[in-house]
Design a protein that fits this description.
Layout: H1 2-18, H2 25-46, H3 58-70, H4 77-94, H5 105-124, H6 131-141, H7 150-161, H8 165-172, H9 175-178, E1 186-190, E2 193-197, H10 205-208, E3 224-229, H11 232-239, H12 245-257, E4 262-263, H13 275-281, H14 291-303, E5 307-310, E6 313-316, H15 319-328, H16 333-348, H17 361-367, H18 370-381, E7 385-386, H19 387-397, H20 407-427, E8 431-434, H21 440-448, H22 453-456, E9 463-466, H23 468-481, E10 484-488
Parallel strand pairs: 3-10
Antiparallel strand pairs: 1-2, 4-6, 5-6, 7-9, 8-9
């Protein structure tokens, strides 16, 4: 829920400035950075993605289980971390943005009170520090910022990896005895995370963090040739027609909520009694199979501010107007394309379910890069391709990403995940799939689950290709990575 976190920080900042809580100048920048890093810690490390939902124990877990042992004090976290979260909770309470599934504000403030003495001491207790905090603290002492130039960070990690056991002990302390391999292992650093690789494993980043491209030299960096696309105005027009299915769903959700809003359940979700009416409004069968579809649409609606939770009610958000304008063709061209592409990125990298099962985060992380890799492969094909053959080629070329034990099982999981996401992208207008053998009974079952017949029951002979919007999406990502250039037929407004 990255976008929701960004909005909450912006609204919180405006609220705090109006009350003279935020100081001016550099101190104000550090203040904002501090709350951003704390909310990010909750999302990434504690699986608390929703920045408005604070349950009993969340405050303690944030500061004592994560920040104290793992986070360097680069944002005034030791001195002002508790104060920042206290102000943020006051903001949520004052503006009715506190999630209905949250603990009472008084209970959360008591948790903060109990940490006043324990937390600063825990931040300074080196015996509590984990690997990342030890490495990053040493890095900062040497004048290298962990969030600075990646080449400098990697060079520091290489120098540390060349140290002997006694030199390492100055940084690693008790971990030298507690963790086998820390005396000789290779340190790798990636985006605020640290890994120590030992025991004969290859010290390459993409084997530790599967969403990274290969960095071991086994493949040459891919660079994509320039592509000519329709101008932005034509692409925006395609959004209102070929790429409008998800936008229509979001507009339907906003219309169903209505200007007066609706009550939600105690988990901040659609009440059970209201779900049949919303499924009917969306043109979907009223079955239990449709509930995951509603959950996904609800989360996307909140993420893109189409709807907002206000304690026990949901009301339309500012994003509802942009969705309506994009469908009508009256939104600014650039905003239409950015909305469509941002929605597509969430389809490719689905929002983590609010009530996801514990232990599934590693599987979700492992699955994350497969669809982008498939889209790259489809793009490089330069035209329509056989879906089954392209999937097999992807699995062959990326065999190194398949875990040991039962590669065939994981290959099947990856293939299924790619097909299901391709089905959502087909609805969104990014890909076109042809050659489907019709089966009305099975198609109805697949539709009830929010997917396509061919995604649930694979068929031979299917052809898949990128649409103009799909090619725009792929090149948009490659442009941000510096691996492609793009030519437009004409400059859009």
């Amino acid at each position: 829920m990255f976008r929701l976190r960004q909005r909450m920080v912006e609204e919180f900042t405006a609220w705090a400035v109006a009350r003279a809580i935020v100081p001016g100048g550099a101190a104000g920048t550090e203040w904002r950075d501090r709350i951003e890093i704390l909310l990010q810690c909750r999302a990434d490390a504690l699986d608390r993605a929703d920045p408005t939902r604070w349950r009993s124990g969340d405050v303690h877990a944030l500061f004592m289980d994560y920040v104290a042992p793992r986070q360097v004090d680069a944002w005034g976290l030791a001195e002002r971390g508790l104060e920042s979260v206290r102000d943020y909770l006051r903001f949520l309470d004052d503006t009715d943005r506190l999630h209905p599934g949250s603990a009472r504000p008084a209970a959360l403030f008591k948790e903060l009170d109990r940490l006043e003495a324990k937390y600063p001491a825990a931040m300074a207790d080196t015996d509590r520090w984990g690997l990342a905090k030890r490495i990053f603290t040493a890095m900062l002492r040497d004048g290298v910022r962990p969030d600075g130039d990646p080449a400098e960070v990697d060079a520091w990690a290489a120098r540390f990896s060349a140290r002997g056991p006694e030199e390492r002990r100055e940084v690693l302390g008790r971990m030298m005895e507690e963790q086998q391999g820390y005396a000789t292992g290779t340190v790798l650093v990636n985006d605020g995370q640290v890994a120590m690789v030992s025991g004969g494993r290859k010290p390459v980043k993409h084997l530790i963090w599967p969403d990274l491209p290969c960095d071991c030299g086994c493949t040459a960096p891919v660079r994509f040739a320039p592509v000519t696309l329709p101008d932005d105005a034509a692409l925006a027009k395609a959004v209102s027609t070929d790429g409008a299915a998800l936008l229509h769903d979001l507009a339907t959700l906003a219309g169903w909520v209505g200007s007066g809003g609706r009550a939600v359940d105690d988990r901040g979700e659609i009440r059970k009694a209201d779900r049949p009416a919303l499924l009917t409004a969306l043109g979907r069968p009223v079955t239990k199979a449709g509930e995951p579809l509603l959950t996904t649409l609800w989360q996307m609606g909140i993420e893109f501010d189409v709807v907002q939770l206000r304690r026990t009610r949901v009301v339309p958000g500012r994003g509802a107007d942009l969705v309506g304008a994009a469908l009508a063709g009256t939104a600014p061209v650039r905003e239409t394309l950015e909305l469509w592409a941002d929605l597509a990125e969430v389809l490719i990298h689905p929002v983590t379910p609010m009530h996801s099962e514990k232990g599934t985060e590693h599987l979700r992380s492992w699955l994350d890069p497969w669809t982008p890799l498939f889209l790259d492969l489809l793009h490089s094909a330069g035209g329509p391709g056989d879906l089954e053959a392209l999937t097999d080629r992807l699995l062959d070329e990326q065999a190194g990403r398949l875990p040991g034990g039962d590669p065939e099982l994981f290959a099947g999981i990856a293939g299924t995940a790619v097909r299901n996401i391709l089905a959502t992208l087909a609805r969104h207008g990014a890909v076109a799939v042809t050659g489907v053998t019709e089966d009305p009974e099975r198609a109805a079952v697949a539709a009830a689950y929010g997917t396509a017949l061919w995604a649930m029951w694979p068929q031979p002979g299917l052809t898949v290709e990128l649409t103009d919007l799909g090619r725009y999406l792929v090149h948009r990502r490659h442009l941000s990575e510096g691996t492609a250039s793009i030519d437009s037929a004409a400059a859009g407004p």
